Amino acid sequence: MRGVLQLRTPQSDSEQPELARVEPAPTAPKVRFRDSQIEMAHGAGGKASRRLVEGLFAPLLFGSNPEPLTDAARVAVGSDSVAITTDSFVVSPLSFPGGSIGELAINGTVNDLAVSGATAEAIVVTFILEAGLPTSVLESEVRAMADAACRANVKVVGGDTKVVEHGKADLMYVTTTGIGSPIPNLTIDPRSVRVGDKVLLSGPIGDHGITILLARGELDIEAQLRSDTRSVFPFVEAVSKVAAPGIRWMRDPTRGGVATSLNELARDCGLGIHIAEEELPVHDEVRGACELLGLDPLHIANEGQFLAVVAPDYAEAALAAMHEIPGGKEARLIGEFREQPSATVLVGTRYGGTRVIDMLVGDPLPRIC
Amino acid sequence: MRGVLQLRTPQSDSEQPELARVEPAPTAPKVRFRDSQIEMAHGAGGKASRRLVEGLFAPLLFGSNPEPLTDAARVAVGSDSVAITTDSFVVSPLSFPGGSIGELAINGTVNDLAVSGATAEAIVVTFILEAGLPTSVLESEVRAMADAACRANVKVVGGDTKVVEHGKADLMYVTTTGIGSPIPNLTIDPRSVRVGDKVLLSGPIGDHGITILLARGELDIEAQLRSDTRSVFPFVEAVSKVAAPGIRWMRDPTRGGVATSLNELARDCGLGIHIAEEELPVHDEVRGACELLGLDPLHIANEGQFLAVVAPDYAEAALAAMHEIPGGKEARLIGEFREQPSATVLVGTRYGGTRVIDMLVGDPLPRIC
After folding, report:
1. Which chain B residue has the Cα nearest residue A121?
2. Residue A142 contacts residue B61 (beta carbons within 8 Å)
3. Of B28, B33, B132, which has the smallest distance from its Cβ to A135's Cβ?
4. Chain B within 8 Å of A237 (Cβ-Cβ)?
5. How far is CA A352 from CA A138, A277, A279, A355, B258, in A?
């Protein structure tokens, strides 16, 4: 799950003064977020989310000079570095083909740790339940969490429950927080990306977002589509084994889709990302629904895909390793980094043209995770 | 904040088989929670909450043999032990005399770590916001969090934001998760409590719960009462300095009040706890409101009080140390442990009688934290 408020803690004192790391700025920081109220788009993971984070949360909570956005923060505890990530899940409907909120919550947290270069060690969970929720629904989601945690080899070690009045939580909201231990010899930093680096993608995009949309029954489309929710840790592990020194950046492209993840990266590294549209794996059902709705599969959320940027010398080995992972057969090299156009993502179409693809703007598919 | 789902991870292999620690039980565990739907009482921190945790969450998520409930789990990361705790906050109204949801969320998490014997190192936060929330309200709560974190000397290192439709989150819900490093030479275990041990309390009880009740304006009472929300870490630190070897157990008595915390302890240690009612510090406003509503101040939530059980030889030094902490002037020795009645909390009244005081049953004051 792409956390929209997540900021990396500075890794060394030279990057940021100690004061800003430990305390909020001594004088009230200036907030530049000018929207007068919160809209659905602020939770969609795209441009509006980023504005909210950079214009309101970051100045108040992190001081004026935050690091690039990442999926998990690093904290020193004792002599060790601990990765920590947190996400709330508000998906509607609670269950859908291929998964449910409980499974999503575990996998999303495992994935945020994984793409930050950490192995999930433990998860804590809170439930906000609405009065009147059938126990059977709760039990089913708790079982889904237990099963997903078992598959991902992570322990659930504690949690909390709150109950609100009927109608005030859309059945249930779930928040999961995970801590993990860093994978040795792996450094993930968007600023380490160089011209010529390759972009790898684990498989078909958009399945999760479109599955949720169809599960709501608002569209008269029948499709055999399932959410791709799963742990992407096996991809991280496999790629790390064969290409650790060449790995620059990893991400699970959730809210806002592949386009938003790559735009964030382009902005952070300053380079141009050239994506070959014909290399993008997209299921026909997703393509069809997107055409009908005027959406781009690159903007649709995934819950089990893995994006990696690797140095050119490591691309072949990394891709081969991804192919060996269950669910990784369709992994592809989808693009590369060039000097120009700076801080921009370009898609080369199958007809020889190119188009700029921006972050997600607005929120065409709310409440998908 | 007393987390109702929180379970301690077993500290050694001898306490529980490895399987139960790492994976859900291999066969579907028997769930004994028989209520057909979730009610407000399941979130109140009392008997119904405990039934939900022990009958549904624990068997599915932790296996069949959980450890005593604590406020934070311990997880091994690298060579270090990390304390972790999580809580959701759904308080209504969002702000009230003496505090607001943002301040509550930071202090509650710092306090859960503190009473588990850990120093808060970092906090992550998620917001579930409803569409239409005025930005000024959000900004005010983020500022409150930053200020509380600054006062408690803890960093906020990341987070996440989700937005749900108007009406589906009662303005906002906040979830905070904290990690901390264990305070050396401190062991908190209800099973270490012995006959003769003393119960210490930091100050007046019930202020928070009654403040919230009055802030709702449903009662025609005027009172100069403020929530006691604050970090209790200074109490933990002070007591640890002078009495570490004699500290058996600590708790911040939030939902369910002092009575629920002590009943959980009585159950876990098997002894009788004798409380002297006349030693309990209670503000007149709280006493008055409780009399009017037929409630016991011992059942009302606190957000800045500290309960400790210490060996008799250390009680005087611990109490003296508590008196030195700002807000600790009214700290008292309120009771002691006896053999009988087993697993029960008895209150000796000021008229010479005694009465059994149970955990909170039902939920007279919902949505207080």
Report:
1. B77
2. yes
3. B33
4. no
5. 51, 10, 13, 10, 71
Residue A20, H or E segment: helix A18-22
Question: A3: distance to nearest CA of chain B, Å?
Answer: 5
- Torsion angle (degrees, nearest 10) of CA B162, B167, B170, B171: 60
> Could A142 and B60 be called an inter-chain contact, meaning their C-beta atoms sit closer than 8 Å?
yes
* Mean of the per-residue pLDDT values of chain B: 90
B24–chain A nearest CA distance, Å: 6
Nearest Cβ partner of B162 from A90, A126, A160? Answer: A90
Rounded to whole angstroms, the Cα distance separating B86 from B71 reads 9
pLDDT level of residue B67 (50, 70, 90 thresholds): low
Neighbours of B92 (CB within 10 A): 17
Give dist(CA A157, CA A178) in Å, integer.
10
Q: What is the DSSP string of A82-107?
A: EEEEEEEE--SSSEETTEEHHHHHHH
With a CB cutoff of 8 Å and minimum separation 6, the contacts of A284 are: none
pLDDT score of A310 more than 60: yes
CA distance B294 to B292: 6
pLDDT tens for B274-311 read: 999 999 999 999 999 999 999 999 999 999 999 999 99
Using 50, 70 and 90 to split pLDDT, how confident is the model at B62?
A: confident
Render pLDDT for A349-361 as a digit per residue (tens, 0 to 9).
989 999 999 999 9
A54 Cβ under 8 Å from any chain B Cβ: no
User: Are the beta carbons of A302 and A258 closer than 8 angstroms?
Assistant: yes
The answer to whether A62 faces chain B, any CB pair under 8 Å, is yes
Helices (H) and strands (E) in chain B, counts: 9, 14
Question: Is the Cβ–Cβ distance between B307 and B253 less than 8 Å?
Answer: yes
Sheet holding A155-164, edge to edge: A73-77, A80-89, A172-182, A118-130, A155-164
ipTM score here? 0.92
Is there a contact between B190 and B343 (Cβ–Cβ < 8 Å)? no
Q: Is the pTM of this model over 0.90?
A: yes
Domains and CATH numbers, chain B: 25-59 (no CATH), 70-182 (3.30.1330.10), 190-356 (3.90.650.10)
The phi and psi torsions of A326 (rounded to 5 degrees) equal -55, 130
